[in-house]
Fold these 4 entries.
Entry 1:
Amino acid sequence: MCLAVPGKLISINHQDGNLLMGKVSFGGIVKDVCLDFVPEVQPGEYVLVHVGFALIVINESEAQNTLDMLSEIIIADESYDKFQTTRTRGL
């Protein structure tokens, strides 16, 4: 399974030769991302990023919906882990 995570483009710059690169914020964690697949993207817009490459530009609403779903998965996973720990201790 592949996972692409939404992030907000903070700035655009060129590095590593002619690659179009940018700084993308993922909830406050900023990473360098290759923007070659989305050369039309502008700072302030959201992109879906997979293994360091922005694949598509998405709107803010779509980005927030995806982030909300990821949060729900994390909460469900943490709840499951707590359940398993409690269940194991009871045996």
Entry 2:
Amino acid sequence: MKKFYFYILGAVTGAVNGIFGSGGGIAAVPMLNAAGIEAKKSHATSLALTLPLSVVSAFFYAYENAFDFKDALPLIPFGLAGAVLGSIFLKKVSNKWLKRIFGGFLIFAGGRMLLK
């Protein structure tokens, strides 16, 4: 049964990632938590899962000329720096606070999207 759950988790994460552009972690983290995986491991597993999904999604977006790589290029160095800082922060924050911060971020981002 757990194996089937992970198949569903992968499919949902892939679909969300493809639709929202690397947003698969928003679906993956709560589903991994529900499967009994601790918060830090859920976030790290989500990253490992969304990397190949993002590459595939980007390929299809590029194939359809849906974006210009020149627009993304200046963001990459700062995104990489943010990823390093976030990884360091993940090691230091407790699972309890990680869940709260992630939940707060989801509420903030969702509210902002609904109101704009």
Entry 3:
Amino acid sequence: MKPYDAVDIRNATPDHYRSNGKITWIESMGSLLCFRAVLVLLAALLFCAPAATQAFSQSFAPATPEEAGVSSERLARIDAALEQYVEQERLPGAALVIGRRGHVVYARAFGYRDREAEEPLDVTDLFRIASQTKAVISAGVMILQEQGRLLIDQDLSDFIPEFDSTTVAVEKEEGGYEIVPAKRKITVRDLLTHTAGIGYGWGPAAERWVEAGIQGWYFADRDEPIAATVERMADLPMDAQPGGQLAYGYATDILGVVIERASGMPLDEFLRVEMFEPLGMADTHFYVPPEKADRLAVVYSLTEADGMVRAPDPGHMVGQGMYLEGPRKSFSGGAGLVSTPGDYARFLEALRRGGILDGARILSPKTVQLMTVDHVRDAWKGDGGSGFGLGFGVIEELGWSGLPGSPGAYWWGGAYHSTYWVDPAEELVVSYMTQVIPAQGLDDHQRIRALVYQALVD
């Protein structure tokens, strides 16, 4: 097991350039006098004005647990629990990164990247994060609002004209359904909150979605750009009226196209420039680069009938998928990214700090606040008394879940059984990844939550 290596501090002072993540002095200082003046200024900043240097000391770096109010002895209970899951063949492997008070206090991997080959899992290995992609895309939309390129209450048709007039399939009491016009246009905010009425093609008019070749959340095998698929969705009957009930589905894939149209950039390029590079997320991609292929964790299936078995290869959705050998054309904003626990923890830590990490600001604190409060009211009450914000489940009523936490914490997960949460009240971020689908009978998410909180002692 390797500890998580934090990315070097970026933008140390205005007189530094970035070079491969390392700090290099500007070569052309002009004169020795100027050089000495800079040294005097740096000394003043470092030793005489701590507040002024705060922006230069934000790296999400490792620290001893006790420095961040966490018990090392109690963290060892997590080790024992995850080792047991692996030994009992309930997990092939799992990796966990915990951040507290701005530091990484836990970063470990257990079990195997590939059980059959007996390749041990490393905390820097790559995982398919499926719906954890949604939070990244939602943040991307909010970046564009901050840049003045869109407003979240704009009509979707401003960016994708095919959605100017949509329909809804309404079930009849006697069976079947009728198709009626949507009562209003879909907005960008409807998509962010999953209240646009668009599911994953399994609604009342499911056969029409099947005929169109659009059903389910998996896009990695599609030999066409995501925009082409999304444009065809506009002609299909939706599952509910816009702004009504929560219908979890293609909303965030559609937002990926909105990002492309509003920014004028391919989705992968936009995320790289606006988020991944600024935050030091060097291992987050839509498709695995060939040189990183040996770091992609294998997918397994856990069922009561068969136990833990390797999923089909190449497979579709459940199996190993096309993240290595696929067409690499469809950038699924709803479920397409691969990442590492450490990379995703950096994204979460930036949100926890109000949109900034290592001096790189991707969002303002007020935008993060807007994203992480409930927007759906009575439209949905999820697990643990959660509402839903702009890309996240948001815990409102702590007593519902029977597990520790804090009101205001926000969370979600992915189809391959990964999960995450941010607890601002406890200055806590948690990034947990494994690759199991389906994951019948697994209770590791609940157990990890309990074990993380019991380790907080200050």
Entry 4:
Amino acid sequence: MPESLKNKTVKGVGWSFVDNIANSGITFLVGLVLARLLTPAEYGIMAMITIFIAISTSIVDSGFSNALIRKQDAGRVDYSTVFFFNLGVSAVLYAVLYVGAPGIAVFFKEPLLRDVMRVIGWVLIINALAIIPRTLFVKAVNFKTQTKVSLIASLSSGAVGIGMALGGMGVWSLVGQQLSRQLMNTVFLWVYGKWRPSLEFSVRSFKELFGFGSKLLLSGLLSTVFQEIYALVIGRFYTSAQLGQYTRAQQFNTIFSSNLTAVVQRVSYPVLSCIQDEPARLKEAYRRVIKVTMLVTFACMLGLAAVAKPLIVLLIGEKWLPAVGFLQIMCFYGMLYPLHSLNLNMLQVKGRSDLFLRLEVVKKIIAVGPLMLGVFVSIKWMLAGSVVTSFVAYFLNSYYSADLVDYPTREQITDWLPTFLVSLLVSAAMWSLSLTALPYPLLLPLQCVAGLALAILIYERLRLPEYMEVRQLALSAFRRLGGRKRA
């Protein structure tokens, strides 16, 4: 990989990671405070409407942002066309949710949902205003500016949410936090961005972009529905408190799985798109991204499963103990999220959104099985079934992306299997410490220190290229940080 592209990728990954820490990490820390002030049932009420907001958000974007990133010569008319389409669709969908709110409340047998839905629905229009400014920053692999925006939005919305919770506003504190975060994010993307829409709408541009984006829209809708449908099943067939336990476990899982996936997806897609017509460079860059990403992912996710119980009890209290079992199972399918993302990214880079869509349809048919376990057996069995379907989905994704970049599934597995085995061994050692009678305030740091020390010891002996690269990046970051402090 040429130095310029490597530097661009490294900087993009670094700032994107910081951006996710600012946006999700700070929000997570705020969530720890809110979890002590609110009840599982109040979290459950908010989770009941998540699927409707998530589906509507996918429709608003309609795959246009990825289509614009991939299009090398996208111009002013293209961006303005997509902007006005996004804004119009968001207004229509808000009207639909407003009218449908009473029916949603009846479905979940939760009257408060009507008013909550009608207020939180404004987030669709707010987000639509931010799509093009964000897309332009992503296309330029400029995550530094997005990091500043996320930091401002996360801190200010956290203050709003905690203030409302202390005021006894219950579930409305979660609504206020989410709305204020998206509003601040949108405002500052416009403040820092130079782009402004022109009063233009090109039917030709719309058709061209929609030809690629429509298949990603349908794929995204399928993916979103099946990501959020677990909450719908739990909300309909179990209690709001059980749904609250599930959502807290999911939020802990998201800190690593979804954020690592988001970082990889946001950076790898525009970078790999730049070399889509150079097969040798594309494969080499792709392999390096997979190997480095999965080293970090396996370590984080399996380590999280090992420390789940003391972590949850110490951070948010014993009332959230049922979330521990959920989280441990989630870690085993969450660790594959970046692999899914990278293989699907390759289909987009190569312009195969049609194959992307067909794959999503097949995988979602397979995913019906775990949902039935949730309806007729239990939540834990539903999550365990998802672990199985996640592995099946990986083999499908990697099988179809292999031909596009000459990187077969067997070769992929050979590349990431050593780091998986190391992380499995380390996490087993960490978990074994929980069999002692140590109090949680001592157990948790002991598990983390022992796990880190054992992992470094093993990797220093193996000297895997991906470990050496992560090690070099970490040392460089520490040196830069040390240099700034001395200055």
